[in-house]
């Protein structure tokens, strides 16, 4: 999987862009966001947010393109609530994007651009998302209070905007926090202190963190770190 830069004018709507070649989906963390997919044949689909890493083979016939939408934007961009987008994906009527990877990606980004002006994110949900990324281990009632909502109101509005329950979203964010902290330690030539990382990421302890990784990915975080280092080494040798 190749990550591509996000155009500056779309950074408020798009969290990432990726292109997948080959017959295997690389192992990685689940992504709690909706993806706009451009299939090898040019058809477009929306794929729902993940709480567990996606398994299975990618579609055959060419490269799969993904435009990872920021949480809360899919309704404004494509007129569908996030909790109506299934994990397995759903087709959307936006026409066929034929041609090379470059042309199909340009077409997908053009779709986002032409809808950008009418995309509005629920401001209360935006507040909660920021709070979750700052402190993913806080209880849901604290997030709700920060946004001036009851827990019930938050669950309803968060589900429509993001596609997950608040607790499920925060659970995935904790994994991303933990792996990012481990990457930072390795980059400095240090061995990750998983016990400290677990607490800073909002888990009770190291055992809790490891259990969360095994549930969401099927492997401990050290395996994901090894996968990344192997990929970096093979890339540098090539």
Note down, in words, how this protein is organized.
The structure is a single chain. With 238 residues, the chain is of the alpha+beta class. It is 45% helix and 11% strand. The chain contains nine helices and six strands; from the N terminus they run βββββαβαααααααα. It has a six-stranded antiparallel sheet. α6 runs antiparallel to α7 and α6 packs across α8. The chain is globular. 32% of the residues are buried.
Number of helices: 9
What is the makeup of the main sheet?
6 strands, antiparallel
The succession of helices and strands, N to C, reads EEEEEHEHHHHHHHH
| DSSP strand tally | 6
* Principal-axes shape call: globular
Using only C-alpha atoms, the radius of gyration works out to 18 Å
Helix/sheet category: alpha+beta
Distance between the termini: 16 Å
Give the percentage of residues in beta strands.
5-15%
Low-confidence stretches: 229-238
Summarize the structure.
This protein is α+β, with helices and mostly antiparallel strands and 238 residues long.
Features:
6-stranded antiparallel beta sheet; 45% helix
Record the SSE blueprint.
Elements: E1 2-4, E2 14-20, E3 35-38, E4 44-47, E5 64-69, H1 74-78, E6 90-91, H2 101-115, H3 123-134, H4 140-146, H5 151-162, H6 166-187, H7 194-200, H8 206-216, H9 221-237
Antiparallel strand pairs: 1-2, 2-5, 3-4, 3-5, 4-6
Helix pairs in contact: 6-7, 6-8, 7-8
């Amino acid at each position: 999987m190749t990550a591509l830069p996000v155009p500056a004018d779309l950074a408020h709507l798009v969290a990432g862009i990726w292109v997948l070649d080959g017959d295997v989906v690389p192992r990685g963390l689940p992504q709690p966001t909706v993806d706009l997919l451009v299939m090898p044949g040019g058809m477009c689909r929306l794929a729902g947010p993940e709480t567990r890493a996606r398994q299975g083979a990618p579609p055959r016939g060419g490269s799969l393109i993904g435009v990872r939408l920021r949480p809360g934007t899919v309704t404004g961009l494509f007129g569908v609530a996030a909790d109506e987008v299934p994990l397995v994906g759903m087709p959307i009527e936006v026409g066929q994007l034929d041609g090379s990877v470059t042309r199909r990606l340009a077409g997908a980004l053009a779709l986002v651009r032409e809808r950008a002006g009418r995309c509005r994110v629920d401001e209360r949900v935006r507040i909660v998302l920021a709070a979750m990324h700052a402190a993913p281990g806080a209880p849901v009632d604290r997030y709700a209070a920060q946004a001036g909502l009851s827990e019930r109101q938050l669950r309803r509005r968060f589900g429509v905007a993001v596609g997950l329950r608040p607790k499920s979203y925060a659970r995935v964010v904790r994994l991303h926090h933990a792996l990012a902290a481990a990457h930072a330690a390795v980059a400095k030539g240090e061995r990750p202190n998983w016990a400290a990382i677990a607490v800073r990421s909002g888990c009770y302890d190291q055992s809790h963190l490891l259990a969360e990784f095994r549930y969401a990915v099927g492997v401990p975080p050290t395996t994901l770190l090894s996968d990344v280092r192997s990929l970096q080494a093979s890339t540098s040798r090539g």
